[in-house]
Amino acid sequence: MERERETQVSNTNNILMLPGDGIGPEVMGEVKRVIDWMNDKMDTGFAVEEDLVGGACYDAHGCAVTDETVAKAQAADAVLLGAVGGPRWDAVARQHRPEAGLLRLRKDLDLFANLRPALVFDALIDASTLKPEIVRGLDIMIVRELTAGVYFGQPRGIETRDGVRYGFDNQIYSEPEIQRVARVAFDLAKKRGNKVTSVEKSNVMESGIFWREVVTKLHADEFADVELGHMYADNCSMQLVRWPAQFDVIVTDNLFGDILSDCAAMLTGSLGMLPSASLGARDPETGKIPAMYEPVHGSAPDIAGQNKANPLATVLSYSMMLRYSFDMTDAADKLDQAVQNVLAHGLRTADIMSDGMTLVTTSGMGDAVIKELEAMG
Ligand code: IPM
Ligand code: MG
Prior knowledge:
This protein is an alpha/beta fold.
């Protein structure tokens, strides 16, 4: 992507850290240690500020994210988020639920492109519920549209018409909304397997017909050298478990992307290993691209506070931050390698534990990653 060709102008890189709820603070604690280590040993120059989001923010301020925090997120060079939600806030009104904080950050920062890699680590191949020969070497990138579609479409509501109650949402996409996310997918494909699969339901939805038409035109106009295929969303979910290796980059709307990325995540055997990046458009004046990085997993309230959670998805989200927001490819490669090495040495948190491996805690995994970084010099 374009941003990788630009160098950072300021000397300090400001990160806003939003640990959130459940296991969020624990996994973020381990990332904080990695950030400190890199500041110390690799001169990464990160200044980290912490703030509240989700249920934690609701408890303190009565809303899932404050205006001040949104402003800080907009001003930061990148946001790193842990997880939000938990049964404690089930009874809270929808507009104040922990998830509302996440949705507002996505919308207000205009983070329209959500990158969700599904990568199978060789050392974890047995953790997948699929046969090893189906998932070995798997490397899929799902690009999910994140700020439009049925998640935000108007009108929406629950109302009574002629004595009958209705619930409704609106799936709506503008041409530029489709173009900009498809452009991200094509650009990414060029650096990977050069193949994009665009996913919709053009057999039943007008918005699906439109999606396919816009992607097809953009491809012909600007990306004819990239292989493009189209697939219905239901078929895509089936193909993901049948023969996932056929995919390189998948581009799809907000709702299908939500569902298909959970499916793709499970191919890898552990949600605890998967990072994500949500990116906006470059500001023509400052050159900055708004970005938020978060693990794909949730807040796992059942194991919160027990030092059991896997911090690697958040560590790898930080690695994506190094790569996409700061062009620090060496640091990102090094961190990715450290994670691979730790797994190769047989260390496992409970979610990825298997016979003959060594069970470690959240902080034990953090220790191991730092030890590995030290050893790599
Ligand atoms: C995700 C989550 C969110 C979504 C929820 C927590 C609002 O499932 O990031 O995939 O539906 O987008
Ligand atoms: Mg989801």
